[in-house]
Amino acid sequence: MVKICCIGAGYVGGPTMAVIAHKCPDIKVVVVDISVSRITAWNSDQLPIYEPGLDDLVKSCRGKNLFFSTDVEKHVSEADIIFVSVNTPTKTRGLGAGKAADLAYWESAARMIADVSKSDKIVIEKSTVPVKTAEAIEKILTHNNKGVNYQILSNPEFLAEGTAINDLFAPDRVLIGGRETPEGQRAIKALKDVYAHWVPEERILCTNLWSAELSKLAANAFLAQRISSVNAMSALCEATGADITQVSHAVGKDTRIGHKFLNASVGFGGSCFQKDILNLVYICECNGLPEVANYWKQVIKVNDYQKNRFVNRIVSSMFNTVSGKKIAILGFAFKKDTGDTRETPAIDVCKGLLGDKANLSIYDPQVTEEQIQRDLSMNKFDWDHPVHLQPMSPSSVKQVSVVWDAYEAAKGAHGLCIMTEWDEFKNLDYKKIYDSMPKPAFVFDGRNVMDPKKLREIGFIAYSIGKPLDSWLKDMPAVA
Ligand SMILES: NC(=O)c1ccc[n+]([C@@H]2O[C@H](COP(=O)([O-])OP(=O)(O)OC[C@H]3O[C@@H](n4cnc5c(N)ncnc54)[C@H](O)[C@@H]3O)[C@@H](O)[C@H]2O)c1
Ligand SMILES: O=c1ccn([C@@H]2O[C@H](COP(=O)(O)OP(=O)(O)O[C@H]3O[C@H](CO)[C@@H](O)[C@H](O)[C@H]3O)[C@@H](O)[C@H]2O)c(=O)[nH]1
Predict the structure, then answer these.
(1) From the CA of 28, how far away is ligand 1's center (Å)?
(2) Class of CATH domain 2-199
(3) How far apart are CA 425 and CA 332, in angstroms?
(4) Residue of 474 and 25 predicted with greater confidence
(5) What residues does the UDP-glucose/GDP-mannose dehydrogenase C-terminal domain cover (predicted)?
(6) Is the confidence at residue 480, as pLDDT, over 80?
(7) Of 227, 312, 448, 449, whose CA is between 20 and 30 Å from 261?
(8) Nearest-angstrom CA–CA distance, 228 and 262
(9) Residue 227 — pLDDT band, cuts 50, 70, 90?
(10) Atom of ligand 2 lying closest to residue 270 CA
(11) Mean pLDDT (whole number) for 22-38
(12) Dihedral of the alpha carbons of 267, 270, 273, 276, in degrees to the nearest 10
């Protein structure tokens, strides 16, 4: 029986390995992590991450050919194939701080593999890493060579949170990069055989190592660039009376452009886009390509502009101050169908409003109060480190209350901000919400979940990203 071990039981390691175990009953899969609480949760009924379809999938194979363990060294030493899906956050200190990827977790995993391995291993980069990382990993693994042969492969993951299980069951492509030597090609074949259990052969792309590593960064940069492009257009729509939904529809009808990923929003979030583009920018700078670096940097700048613009719109339309006013925040996760809050635009918007002394009442169906308080008191980039390395008891923000009902959040609020496109927000009784708020009552829809015309009929002053403004908002233009 082939034995797979995955180091890192997070948003990637857990779902990816559950799918491999489910699709390959002839393979034993063990997911290991240094975080005892995460592994305990993976072995319980309360999984550590919320992802539609994940619970049933894990239940279908846990204890049969899928295992979760903290005994990292034992399972690594027994494995034939080792996936490494540890964090690769943005560095907060030292060389490249604020841009470069922090490979400390990867390096410690590689050193551990080198220490405990007694048989040949295929070591797979599942984490997103800078191009040429495999070269450094090879050096670490072979430094104290004890006669063990290592083959490094790059097999970046393209799943998106909220749709992870579908993405893994039916991927657009699986990408495998390896050395162009006979041993490298044999390793590629071994990994291809795993995916071939359910992925059609023409969807499994094999490349050299550097193409695979760079393709992951490139894919995220291209996706994020689309969002910044449509968000930049949304500002122009508000200035001219064009409607971004109509513009996106018309532009996306061109088959060369396509309709996906053209939804204007308060800005993209999530643990990947910003981190990976900053990393790409850093790599370009290190390779003496400042023009290329500046081109991609602009994608992040427009995203920051979009979040600032949203906060400025709220404050300016509410008589230039939200001091002492209750503002309801509906949704805190970075997108629907996940409880993940890493780099969610809600953090920046909430911090902006708190800076103007607002009182916030926050509701999200999947995010805990502890997580929200932690996010609002944490420093930039500290969020993507293993939880046990983060500040243990961040001071809670007094102007923030977290409630478990959208109506409760809105009661007595001057304004209501929709920050995540949860389906349930589309079906709220907005008349009831309007009646419970002081007047004038405002809605700021950061996800274009609601039809602003319907909200205006109820009596709200309604703002939607990139949609024609009502006269109130025109009279109080936001300073970007
Ligand atoms: N989240 C996504 O949607 C997504 C998608 C594609 C790629 N990625 C990439 O995958 C990687 C992992 O992302 P994630 O979201 O799963 O992160 P995560 O924080 O959810 O999980 C990483 C896990 O690795 C563990 N870990 C860190 N160092 C370790 C070590 N030395 N030994 C054992 N365990 C260790 C941590 O405790 C943590 O549980 C990142 O490089 C990310 O960029 C993420
Ligand atoms: O038209 C759109 C599409 C997305 N978003 C926002 O963009 C962010 C990212 O969304 P999405 O890409 O769906 O989720 P992620 O889980 O961050 O997935 C991205 O990042 C992963 C980690 O690298 C990759 O594996 C995926 O392919 C890539 O889509 C979220 O805040 C979305 O709300 C928009 O604002 N408008």
Answers:
(1) 21
(2) alpha beta
(3) 12
(4) 25
(5) 328-452
(6) no
(7) 312
(8) 9
(9) very high
(10) 17
(11) 97
(12) 150
CA distance linking residue 244 with residue 445, whole number of Å: 14
Among candidate residues 272, 284, 350, 417, the one labeled active-site is 272
Is 272 noted as a catalytic residue in this protein? yes
Testing ligand 2's pocket by substitution, the residue of 49, 129, 161, 225 carrying the most ligand atoms inside 8 A of its CB is 161
How would residue 471 be classed by pLDDT, with cut points 50, 70 and 90? confident
Domain boundaries, given as residue ranges, for the chain: 2-199, 220-475
Whether 158 has a pLDDT exceeding 70, the answer reads yes
Residue 148 to residue 117: CA distance in whole angstroms: 7
Is 85's C-beta closer than 6 angstroms to any atom of ligand 1? yes
Residue-wise pLDDT tens digits, 206-217: 999 999 999 999
**CATH code, 220-475:** 3.40.50.720
Q: For 358-373, what is the mean pLDDT? A: 96
CA 466 to chain CA mean position, Å: 24
List pocket residues of ligand 2, CB cut-off 6 Å.
128, 157-161, 220, 223, 227, 261-263, 265, 268-270, 272-273, 334-335
* Residue 478, pLDDT score: 75
Same fold, 2-199 and 220-475: yes
Cβ of 247 below 6 Å from ligand 1 = no
Question: Could you give the CA distance from residue 356 to residue 168 in angstroms, rounded to a whole number?
Answer: 43
Short-list 351, 319, 471, CA closest to 419? 351
Q: CB count, 10 Å around CB of 254?
A: 9
More confident residue, 100 or 380: 100
| Ligand 2 center–CA 269 separation, angstroms | 7
Atom of ligand 1 nearest to the CA of 8: 24
Instruction: Provide the terminal-to-terminal Cα distance of the chain, rounded to the nearest Å.
Output: 60
Could you tell me which residues come within 8 angstroms of residue 30 by beta carbon, excluding any fewer than 6 positions away? 3, 4, 5, 6, 66, 67, 68, 69, 75, 79
d(CA 4, CA 215): 25
Helix, strand or coil, per DSSP, at residue 53 = coil
Q: Which is it for the CA torsion 455, 457, 458, 462, positive or negative?
A: positive
**pLDDT at 393 exceeding the cut of 60:** no
Distances (CA, A) of 322 to 352, 361, 457: 11, 13, 24
Q: Which ligand is closest to the CA of 109, given by its number?
A: 1
The residue among 248, 255, 266, 260 whose CA lies nearest residue 332 is 266
**Is the CB of residue 446 less than 8 Å from the CB of residue 345?**
yes
**pLDDT at position 36:** 96
pLDDT of residue 391: 58
pLDDT score at 390: 65
